[in-house]
Design a protein that fits this description.
The protein is α/β, with parallel strands linked by helices and about 400 residues long. The chain has 20 helices and nine strands. Helix 8 runs antiparallel to helix 9, helix 8 runs antiparallel to helix 12 and helix 10 packs across helix 11. This is EAL domain-containing protein.
């Protein structure tokens, strides 16, 4: 399954890119589909931006402008995102109330930049406009006289004015002359669509996780066990941790990743993922293999000299097919997830303290038993246990796989 994002550049008066507005798309048709709500579209856009594409790959050093409606602001979704990377666009039809204004002001006090989207002279919601840092003025819906009125209204209020829907060079030159600092529109570029292969999804896992997260006493071991058997969830969680930039190359296990994120933030992120994925249930043989390897490596570690590293080896097993699923080489697939360097090197085929166990797993899968028998003593593993451990892992993975491929929706 392919996923899509459109982006349109936002430039300064010297044609230098300041940022990109990121736009939801569900195919190669370059327009918004009205068969989906704005908050669902933004939820999907955020998951795709941060997990599948990587926000840095989409915008580089520039800012990402992302539309938010009332529900997403009130739900705290914006707080999941890097305030130095994104600009929150409040949609023009969002009506203010006490709860919304409190949450917008909280975001502003946290130094998030707030923009008012598609602003017109007849805008009814001055409460929101007053707290916004940026005003995006619609050049199609406003006449020149109305635009000048808007510029005069805000010129002494420390607002950054952006001219949007600029379609000609003449409009661009006129906008510069009347006081606009930033510009967006078809004159510069139409939204360009980016396409990427999606990860397989296991909708049942989201339901299981939500049930665990809603327990009075949260069992992190149960949550870890659910996540580590699913390559999609594992990859997404690690990419979420990576969005907290200071944690790059520090994560050793799923439990540690959950500790970094925190229960509340993880629950919010999981809800976003569910919006996108519950209607797109899918799995494949690569997922089965990742489950099998995760369990097999955990069993190998348990009765070897690597018994203190069961979680690390389980994570290696889960991620060992990520290159196949994403249809890219392993180095590129691992580039933006924050597992520690030694785990990463193991997956890249380098010699590490985990590599003998990982090689033992791969050799046995391939039926290269002579080489497997040579490796087992290096990690103090009784080779007599290998066959039983392997077939127990195959049976376990088949059972989990079969449960997950039963559609209950």
């Amino acid at each position: 399954m392919n996923i899509f994002i459109a982006r349109q550049p936002i430039l300064d008066k010297n044609y230098k890119v300041f940022g990109y507005e990121l736009l939801y798309r569900n195919n190669l048709n370059n327009y918004f589909s009205n068969d989906i709500s704005h908050n669902a579209a933004t939820s999907i856009l955020l998951i795709n931006s941060y997990v599948h594409f990587g926000i840095d790959n989409l915008v580089g050093e520039a800012k990402a402008f992302i539309n938010f409606d009332k529900h997403l602001i009130n739900y705290g979704v914006a707080k999941l995102l890097d305030k130095d990377k994104i600009i929150i666009e409040i949609l023009e039809d969002v009506a203010p109330d006490d709860r919304l204004m409190k949450n917008i002001l909280e975001l502003k006090n946290m130094n998030y930049i707030i923009a008012h989207d598609d602003y017109t002279k007849n805008n009814r919601y001055s409460e929101i406009t007053e707290v916004c840092n940026w005003i995006k003025v619609d050049f199609i819906e406003n006449s020149k006289e109305e635009i000048i009125f808007i510029v005069n209204r805000f010129k002494n209020k420390s607002k950054v004015l952006l001219a949007e829907k600029v379609e000609t060079k003449e409009e661009f030159e006129w906008a510069k002359n009347v006081g606009f600092k930033y510009f967006q529109g078809y004159y510069f570029a139409r939204p360009s669509i980016m396409k990427k292969k999606n990860l397989p999804e296991n909708a049942l896992k989201y339901v299981q996780l939500m049930n665990e997260l809603n327990e009075k006493y949260i069992d992190y071991k149960k949550i870890t066990d659910i996540i580590v058997t699913d390559i999609s969830l594992t990859y997404r969680l690690l990419k979420l941790v990576n969005s907290k930039t200071k944690y790059k190359d520090e994560v050793n296990s799923i439990h540690q990743a959950l500790t970094i994120i925190g229960t509340r933030e993880f629950r919010t992120w999981l809800s976003l993922a569910m919006v996108k994925d519950l209607s797109n249930y899918e799995t494949n043989e690569s997922v089965r293999l990742s489950m099998q390897r995760s369990n097999f490596l955990s069993k190998i570690a348990k009765t070897s000299s690597l018994s203190d590293y069961r979680e690390e080896l389980a994570l290696i097993g889960t991620l060992s097919v990520i290159d196949t699923i994403l249809e890219m080489d392993m180095e590129e697939a691992l580039k933006n997830i924050p597992i520690n360097t030694e785990l990463k090197l193991t997956l890249l085929g380098k010699q590490t303290k985990y590599s003998d166990a990982f090689s033992l797993c791969l050799l046995y899968e391939k039926g290269n038993f002579d080489e497997a028998f040579k490796l087992a003593p290096l990690i103090e593993y009784d080779i007599e246990n290998l066959s039983n451990a392997y077939f127990a892992s195959v049976k376990w993975a088949d059972n989990i796989y079969n449960q997950l491929t039963i559609k209950t929706l």
